[in-house]
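note to self: dont lose this again. the chain is below, predicted strucutre after it. 258 aa total, dont forget to put it in the shared folder this time
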Amino acid sequence: MKREERQQSIINLLVEHKTVDLDDLADRFIVSKMTIHRDLDDLEQAGVLRKVRGGATIDAGTQFESDFRFRERQGHDEKLAMARAALDLVEPGMTVMINDGSMAAVLGEMLLQKRPLTLITNNAAIIDRMKNESGITLIALGGVYSAKFNAFLGVVTEEALSRLRADIAFLSTPAVSGKLAYHMDDNVVRTKRAMIASAARSCLLVNHQRIGHTALHVMADLADFDAVITDQAPDAAIVEQFRCDGIVLTIASNQDMT
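---
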């Protein structure tokens, strides 16, 4: 088996199992452990996985967010629930901004129900989906393309955002702890902050399993958002703390406002 084929097989196993074991991979592909080490190094350098002791994982860590290709396959029902809740904040005729991420891509698809809209995004999946749709004025943000995030990032993206204004921006995050939202990548953080600054209102989308976790960079204070949407209620203590802090939390599974 060629190296490229073996590495693709490792990716396929990660999609199915989320983790892989070094010894198992060496036995499966009948190669040395050193060869598997090199494969995992290559994939880690490409931002596809995170090496751990004895293998690799696609689960996020404080300095790692898994590749878009993995995230788009995970938690689809939860993403649908959050997207439906977010859609309630959109009215035809609005200018809507959406960031990178698989969660945002699901919401982007649903926005077709609210056309006509002007849509501003750096999300390549949304750009590809919307480019031929009637009733959607698509403003595609340029910049440096990131395969890991399937999005355009960097100075060009941030400069474009500084010259645009939206009625509402929808942003996702891989980690929330206390009153702060976090992200692992500094380029992504800067783009998300630029979106918040360029929108009259902003809404944060976060899976409940990501609440109570941190990442490398502080992205924003939750008070910067007009609403926070999650798929299921987090721990009661967290819900109570949100209430005390004046954070508007929408539980997508029941549409209750807390």
